[in-house]
Amino acid sequence: MKLDGRKAFRVRMDHKQSVNLMGSDGTWRRKCVLLDVSQSGAKIEVEGTLDVLQAKEFFLLLSSTGLAYRRCELVWIDGTTAGVHFITADGKRRPVSAPAAAAQTSVQSK
Q1: C-alpha radius of gyration, the chain, whole number
Q2: pLDDT digits (tens, 9 = 90+) for 18-61
Q3: Region label for 79, one of left (φ > 0), alpha (ψ between -120 and 50) or beta (otherwise)
Q4: CATH architecture for residues 10-108
Q5: C-alpha distances in angstroms, 99 versus 3, 10, 102?
Q6: How far apart are CA 1 and CA 85, in angstroms?
Q7: Pairing of strands 81-86, 10-23
């Protein structure tokens, strides 16, 4: 399902998926709920103060052990909800792949 006219195919979570944000230097951590996710980014609801997001770059920890994570940057904040964009190892934004774009087209036409 493509939401809000976005470039990437997004999956909306049916159940609350608890994840964490962590500063790239490890000095802070915030609990949050994953609302939707795509290959290129995610929408999250953050618990607590959002002042730490001023860092602009941080990690989204997808597992309690920290073994599954994505490096990301802040795109927008609206109240307690935030949008993040995933960054690749070379420091560039993660592009939408051709298979994902083809899936978007087939889903939109149904």
Answers
A1: 14
A2: 999 999 898 999 999 999 999 999 999 999 888 888 887 899 99
A3: left
A4: Beta Barrel (2.40)
A5: 18, 14, 5
A6: 18
A7: unpaired
- Residue pair 45/80 in contact (Cβ under 8 Å)? The answer is yes
- CA–CA separation, 4 vs 25, rounded Å? 33
> Going by C-beta distance under 8 Å and a sequence separation of 6 or more, which residues neighbour residue 25?
none
CA 11/CA 26 separation, integer angstroms: 28
Degrees (nearest 5) of the Cα angle 13, 18, 24? 115
31 contacts 47 by C-beta, under 8 angstroms: yes
d(CA 20, CA 61): 5
CB 99 within 8 A of CB 38: no
Confidence grade of residue 93 (pLDDT, cut at 50, 70, 90): low
Residue where the block lists tokens 């997004």: 10
User: What is the helix (H) or strand (E) element at residue 57, kind and residue range?
Assistant: strand 57-61
